[in-house]
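Recap quiz, item 2
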Amino acid sequence: MSLPVLKVAVVGHTNTGKTSLLRTLTRDAAFGEVSNRPSTTRHVQGACLLVDGVPLVELYDTPGLEDSIGLLEHLDGLRVDRQMDWIVVLRRFLDSAAAHGAFEQEAKALRQVLASDVALYVIDVRDRVLAKHRDELEILGRCAKPVVPVLNFVVSSEARTAQWREHLARVNMHAVVEFDTVVLNENGEQRLFEKMQTLLDPFRATLEAVIADRIRHRTGLRHAATDLLADLFIDVAAYRVTLPADGRNNAAAMESLKRLVREREQCCVDALLDLYQFRPDDYEAEALPIDDGQWGLDLFNPASLRQFGIRAGGGAAAGGIAGLAIDAMTGGLTLGAAAALGATLGALWSSSQTHGKRLADRARGFTELRVNDATLRLLAVRQLELVQALLRRGHASQDKIRLKAQSAVARKVWKTQQLPVMLAEAKVHPEWSRLDSAESAANAGDSGRAAAKAELAKLIEASLREGTGETPPAAGGT
Amino acid sequence: MPLKLNASEAFATTAAQPAQEPIGFSQRLLAEAVRLHEDAQGLAGDDPQADALARAAGGDLERRLVTRARALAMAPALSVALRQLRGASRWAVAIGLVMAIMAGATTAQVALGSQGEGPVNFFWVLGSLLGVHTLALLIWLMLMLLWPGAMTTGSLGGMALALGRRISRWLHREPVQVAAVRASASIYARNPIGRWTLSAISHSLWLAFLSGCLVLVIFILSTKQYTFAWETTILSDRTYVALTRTLASAPAALGFTTPTAQQIMASHWTRQGPVAGESREAWSGLLVGSLVAYGLLPRSLLLIFSLLAVQRAGRRFRLDISLPGYARLRPRLLPEAQDIGIVDADTGVANGQREEGGGQPLPIKAAGPLVILGLEIEPPQTHWPPLLQGVEWLDLGFVDSRGDRQRALEQIRVAAIPPRAITVVCSLAATPDRGTRSFIHDLQTASHIPVVVVLTEGQRLRLRGDAEQVAARIEDWRRLLHTTQVPGERVIEVDLDHLTDASRARLASLFGVAGLVPVPVGRLARSCTLIMEHIERWPGQPSLDEQVELHRAIAILYRGEGQSWQALLRARFQDGGNRVEQLKVSAERMVNLLPARLRANPRWLAAGAMAGALGCVAAATLVAPAAIAALPAWAGLGAALAAVIQPSSAIATPPVDLTTVVRSAALFAVLLELQGRDEVAITRIIDQVTLADDAVIVSRAAAREWLNALQQRLALALVAEGSS
């Protein structure tokens, strides 16, 4: 069963952000042309929104309305007969010479409105409510199509949102949407579609499909992000370098470990940015905690720990190596005998080779070098912050402040409380780390790792949800 | 990134969706292998053609992923690897089956042969043949019902798979092989298909074992003669008979002859004697029957069931599209939007109509009232109409709607004395549009009186963005009005909310109002005097407090326009905030206002930064005089200031000496004098005022000379500015 395609005309006074609105809805930064000059858009350009490859909503960007006062006067002039229907007057106007001359831009916009199912009237709330806006709404009203006012630039300090809402209410428009096209607002997008649903009954199903698809997409992105994080945490927590007892090549080994971990973190950051289609230009508008695609402070720099408020932890390893810890190879005995037994048995079944070697090394007095707990915390906290900032892209700036506070609380868990059990488990399974060789990479198909990763991903997702204040979805959701 | 398909392509995609054939398990497996390969090897294999094919295939994301996987260059190699893996597993299972048959045969032989001469303990044989199998079956049942997930790691089949994996890894090290192995392993490990496959393998191995047993049992029973007996220590005879009868019920149902109660009783080991052939037959029947009924039959049924379950799981298997390896492909394969293109092109006619302009502007007469009206603005914060010496305004008020406009035109038409110019005040923060243009056009043509346009609210626009925007906006207004015969010089930017002497003068110059001294520089002279006074007072190198004092004294002179220059410097010095940040912001603002060549000079750079930072502090002390008393308590201020100045020099830290202090104070004073203008103008004037002198000021006399020269240059620059 195919759903009816909804045609939407985006109209408004010149330079109010109509093209920006289309760019935001289509996620295409290259649509049309945006500038602060008047009459940037001079033609009608369309784009359609696809759900599962099927176009369901067609959006049309129109030239700005500039001379509404003049146009209204002209239309009033055309209405020779009091009985004449306004639609007839409009059609007569659109066929006349004026529509291709002085009022060409307005004519294009109106023609598109008449050919569409609904009009989005974009308003720059920094502007005053003036007579020309009243006249614009008057003309739009005569087109006999539902109109949804969209308030743009609501986050600006100059915004006169209340005045605009009052004015719109007076002309009987109550389904108003606040949508700042500069601050990418996914929740606002959902509200926009929902408001359109209230005005357009025949297209209810179509809009429902679009909303559902967008929600699915968002959730899918979140899952993917948590998966990436869980992978990163396990890889880093499990990674071990064996150091010979006599201390040869220690410095080189440490440097090598740090390098691998840094590269792995950067890999994760790149993948996250790619996932969220983050473009280099977006760095200006967004307040991401990273600079130009990279973390400003090095993972192993003590200043980074301070920046995130994580304590370096007592008992620095011998020689004060930042970020690393040296263990005598305990073979997991620190976790308790039961875990060690389990680990040994598991090891006997799966990777007797590696474990046998480890036991042998222990007998020979080797030590292991790994990333210490404080650095693991730092890694977790700052990656979580990055993902949260990317998720926050869906919220206007007032919400952002509240969300930052909430997410700070959620991150506290990672900062102060015990590290999750799965990470402790990972420490006992160095073969889970994919950082050292292709051999381990092959082993990573291991179901033990997969199970731990799944658990960890759930935990991360719960932290993220806490941070954005959402309630977990009901079981059996999309 | 949505894609640009032209209109016909777009409709083609929607019109006919090809009949969607179902996707097979092996195709999904290939897609998984591709994902894992990309995961390990990087994304070099991304192929736009494959993406295009996937998009053309239509359907949901999973279908497109599968299509893409098939179309990639690495696909054949991966398919081969997967096939090899399947082949290897099959070989492993086949070997296992053969071994199982042999094991079964051996067990049967051992079980029957171990008895030596004499009667064979029936239940012992039965136990050794069926015992382990039954135990395994029960364990399997328990696991399947209670703990499905654990199947894949512990059981017999699990070991077989792990072995197969290990062998495969041993033989092949290439990434393609590795990806294939990983893909299979991960899917089988986490999916019902895994445990059902393993179950099937288990059952088939056991079936083979039992078949081997059966064959050999039949063979042995056919070729040797056995007497079956039974013995017991704790069970009574009757119980035993009952148990045996119960045991025999299933084989009997299948048609095997089973011992009757008497035959059972007769077979007790103590009762030796000639055993009837039927008794022997019956017991063998029971043995074979039990093997079939409790061994082969359940196992074959379960095997068939497992195979069916494997099929079903294979059909129901779906790719997990929330994995990052797939999620990143979504925007490419299943774009959220596509371009329709231009529907109603611009003919350029309207544009042509706009460009008409030129022609002679109407001259402004020497006498007559000046009409002023505000177009689409609110009354400004300063007096309306703006106070100008020697100007009498004919105020027409604020015009907005059609009715207002008609009324204004009417009032001008019926004015007693024809006005010499009409001043239309518009908002710079608004975008110039054709409605405004047509009104101004009407004003000029209807009344034949020249129009002058004043653009106010420039501050609002500045707060929104950068200086470029403001200049561009003024340019837009000029261009628009050019088509109505209002020349560029009659369009000026004067912010009526923040009217300064300088801006008033510019306004007045529009009308050529005589009697006004262009640009009084009185206050700058007073600033310079202040600087000299302070220098006299300082013993040597001025301390931080003294520098702040000086800047504050200068700031007091311009207290009236406080809002304006503080906004210019973004000076928002709040208590409890990050001092360094706040000072930095102001310092950067000041530095940005300096012309490029000064910024290249580290001393000037430091002077600029200091002017900005200390200006910020001065602003704070203006607001809260009590803060001055707390000045010495601002312990962090010195460090903050140093932090602000430090980074501005790339080469070396310039010493904060008298030169820098004097320059910073002078820059501050000049900035306060110039505020109200747009930033490009400020930078221009500063450029003219400061020669590229790197003169070091060591004495008071030198300072005085330098300041005098500065004032002269400023006066010249302002005159040049005013006349341009």
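The longest helix of chain A spans residues 204-238.
Residues 314-320, 329-340, 394-398, 474-478 of chain A have pLDDT under 50 and may be disordered.
End of item.
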